[in-house]
Amino acid sequence: MNVFTRILAAGLLLLDAPAVAAQTAPTHGVRPRRLAIRNAMVIEGNGTPAEGPKDIILEGNRIIDVVSLDPVAVKMGEVKRIPADVEIDATGKYVMPGLINLHGHVQDERGGIPQPLEYQLKLWLGMGITSVRDVSSETPKTLQLRTRSAAGEVAAPRLYVYARYAYMPVPKNEVEARQRVRDLKAQGVDGLKLFGMDKDVYAPVLDEAKKLGLRTAHHMAVDETNAWDAAKGGLTSIEHWYGVPDAALLSGAQQFPSNFNYADEGMRFRYAGRLWREADPARLQEVLKAMVQGGVAWNPTLDIYEASRDLQRAETQPWFTEYLHPTLEKYFRPDAANHGSYFANWSSTDEAFWKENYQIWFRAVRDFERLGGVIGAGEDAGFIYQVYGFGLVRELELHQEAGFSTLKVLQHVTANNAKILGEEQRLGRIRAGFLADLVVVNGNPLEDLKALYPQRADAAAGPGGGVQWTIKDGIPYDAPRMLSEVRALVKAARTR
Ligand SMILES: [Zn+2]
């Protein structure tokens, strides 16, 4: 009997009759009236150290109490164990807020080929993701899914819908731009997803969005607007990284070869790998400071560019064997018609430049946080060899590689993401009064972020233990069961 089971045994003796009767395990997909997660090591999500054992009590879709279990007090029978209808014994496990994926796209097709929505939703939940900021998809469909998810009618993460601003016809002037923002607001979206923007409409769009209470996520281009404009206009978050190093080019323009064509993805990604090296280090610090002062957060999505620095790693991920849907597999193959599938002529030279690119990028992300900036975490999966859910865990590993402690990394994907969503009063922390979005992890993600990957059948597997329970809005989902359903779905799709 180890110390934890002894504490548990002592604790159980103290339970009064209704609590003992409540030794029921959760039912997958059914929200109990009151659920207790017992003896958990808790990572709150706000960057404070892990602490436990604790009992976390959920009622409906809220966390109502987080109770520290002092071993001595437990032994003396002086700890009140709050009874519950349903219990999870988290002895030896870590409990943290549900992961928030700050950059997702709801996808039911890839390259025009249908892909079951269930595949993506189950992967997200099975990997511990309880919220997704959808940054452009088929907005009307995703808004319906948001409603059904909020009502608990479908097993899906909480959705925040940031609709694409520049759908056809693209607004040509300030009047049309402001009207577009109002039209999107009327559709009921939570925010806007911007791609490359011209200067004359950028400030009006940000201004109109702010007036209407819409947040803004911007995938910048190498363009006439960059991080300086974002800082001035009060953009919510820069997605990826374009717009940051370009704002620190002393000459104001990158050194492209004369035959460079921005519309050619192979070329675009090749020279993107040579952009950070051209940023002036001193000017870059000024850019980062301006972003902090302008309240602009940064969601770097480090995972989605990794194939550029190591194509073989990206192509041969062990998860593909069982989890890669044939639709995605086809989409990832080099094809100029599929966004992000630009590797037809990728070279060791490209990889060497990209490896250097990452080092400068890592430093900038780290400096940004040190200057007081808010770093978020998102995966952008469904593109460039990233599979839903797995991409986000890889993103966390890359945050660690960038130089952040795992405690900070887990803060990026929980409390920081909640802040960027404007939900910091109720999401992203394990705290009484907050929404009941949590994950029970088999293992210690502070020691090893790979604990968030599911266990692998092959002997070469790392220590991944995976998520045991994903609780979203108070609804417990058996994560290994979700993942086994995904594997079955993939298997069936392959034999079709
Ligand atoms: Zn994206």
From TrEMBL:
The keyword Translocase does not apply. Residues 1-21 form the signal peptide. Residues 398-452 form the Amidohydrolase-related domain. GO terms for molecular function: hydrolase activity, acting on carbon-nitrogen (but not peptide) bonds. It comes from the Bacteria. Keywords: Hydrolase, Signal. PANTHER family: ALPHA-D-RIBOSE 1-METHYLPHOSPHONATE 5-TRIPHOSPHATE DIPHOSPHATASE (PTHR43135:SF3). This is Amidohydrolase. It comes from Gemmatimonas phototrophica.
